[in-house]
Amino acid sequence: MMPQLPPSRAPFTKRHLLQIGDLNRLEALELIERAEVFLPFTQAREKKLPTLKGRTLVNLFFENSTRTQASFELAGKRMSADTVNMAVKSSSVAKGETLLDTAATLNAMGPDILVLRHGASGAAQLLARKVGCSVINAGDGTHEHPTQALLDALTLKRSFGHVEGLTVAICGDVLHSRVARSNVILLSMLGARVRLIAPPTLMPADVDRWGCEIYHSMVEGLDGVDVVMMLRLQLERMNGGYVPSAREYFRFYGLDARKLSYAAPHVKVMHPGPMNRGVEIDSDIADDPRVSLIVDQVESGVAVRMAVLEALASHGANDEVLDV
Amino acid sequence: MSEGLIHFINARLVDPASNYDGPGEVLVAGDLIRAVGPSLPRHPEARIINCDGHALMPGLIDLHVSTGEPGEEQRETLATAGKAAVAGGVTTMVLQPDTHHVIDDAALIDFITRRGRDQSPARVLAAGALTVGLKGERIAELGLMAEAGAVMFTNADKPIISTRTMQRCLSYATAFDGLIASRPQDPFLSEGGMMNMGELASRLGLSGIAVAAETIAANRDIQLAELTGAKLLIDMISAEATLHRIQAAKAQGLDVSASVSVHHLTLNENDLGDYRTFAKLSPPLRTEQDRLALVDGVRSGLIDVIVSGHDPRPAEEKRLPFDEAAFGASALETVLPAALLLYHEGLIELLDLIRALTIGPAQLLGLPQGRIEAGAPADLIVVDLGFPIRFDASRMVSKSRNSPYDGRTMQGKVLSTWVGGKPVFTAAE
Asked: Molecular function terms in GO for this entry (chain A) (predicted)?
């Protein structure tokens, strides 16, 4: 028997989910609340909901991402959508096909929702102008990763009961992090205080205008915080380009028990994954269930993506292309 | 001797060279202007052109134009660029040397100039490459190119990394008083940059180009101009900070001049909006404060020249994710109406604006055109200054239609264009 689901409160008016900035506070809260409703279903024995029956979801991943792709695929399948994965990197792009060629081809196949992961900032916006279906940005370059921020907010809500009033420190490679950008906007919107901690070379220009507190010292930045959100540092950025070495980075910006002791006693630690253990985070912390929310984040991920899919599916099917 | 007499009447003469903006008439004989005055005697055989009170001004001289010829004709040919130019009121264009085959010797200068004469309704002049193949290593044959007609020298978008090579280029060119243009951008600081560095770039997740990349390079070349006594054009500046360097250099008495593209006078970084690649330019569009400072630089004469920076790019180079899209805009057709936005907004007097598009560049290159006076070449345009247009890029004459002004309302329409006394463009009604 299909599980019963309470109806959604408000209709979702947006056609795409390209960046957190496109959402208002109410829409963001509604998506998070809705994801909370889905959470028990992801743990139930019978996991399928009929919401997206007959709809087609295409995962278009120009960059490898096992967990995000699996999360969207599972979310789609649990909502009964036909889910297709396209790993573009290996196929057409190698033959010189551009993003828009791929988009045109896919569009002709009439999908209802396209999930895009791409290495260039703004790729999702470009795609959204060229296809007739909804587009979900699953990470574009160093711009945004909106579903990650939503799942982080849900994780915080589950753990603390609220997001408002929390002090969250986002630490690490802020410069190249789409996760940081989406989280800064969403968490600020939801009433959290956001601190950014990074060496100056990994901090974006004019970041002081984002309305966050800026720190270059972990000890100062972590002082009294409720949540520490660690970011991944790409290994190739640790060989003298941005920071001198991995060991120097870990010494000053890696999360260990000593630095964490400056945070509030009830502090929780998050990481969008995949982790570089011993570079940005100590294994003892990452694996400590009293402190780490990393497993909860993955669980929240599927629920949030179900909520986003449901919200976007309230639109009609493949419409005309809004070319500009 | 009455052959080819053309008498422009009922004109509002706009001639920055004589600082005159008022009613007047112009008589053209053959390819030259024969007389200018408030009222000229009618010659029975003269063809009368009634300007109906519209502006009659020198045709525009554009010091920074790229085409795809030779080698990348899909972007633009000399013929299509020339047609676009005269439709936009540009009667002389100076072509950048960074074509597929770099214009770095006398034979290629000769080729471009001849081909321009045959194919383009606008006058075509060539800028020679400063170094062989634009590689920044060996000085190109500047003297031979100058003899063949090169009007200036530049390494285009490829900065000369070696300070010593740049010093020698500047030094060598003083022997024949050659003008050297430098596009100031430190290649290391700007590496991988896509737009102006700042809050917007950070938010969009695009790699930024700091203003310092421009000032560092401009500083270096200004100091080398001081060292060598060379005649230096700091080409296409984008930031207020650079303007301060230009001001200091001029105050010091150096032979340094500056140009700005019309885009940087009329657009700012916010025009990139939702990753609009058609506003992806090099140098990048900066802030509104920079834009207003540049406009003021033109007004005060600190900036000598306004260029189009015409850089035609076919759609397939632009309809890409922002990081992958080409820099540049197709601009010959919009240079005048876009520049006139500044006049209509009351930011600048008409004469000051038109000066940087006509006599300013003419004086820099020592050209006889760009002025309305007896004996000057009859390169003229009739312009309806107030004519409202909604710019439609799909109707552009240029082979590439990558314009950041698509859909924008502007004022100013070229009614007719005359090169050497010949009508080369007449606007459709």
From this structure: amino acid binding; aspartate carbamoyltransferase activity
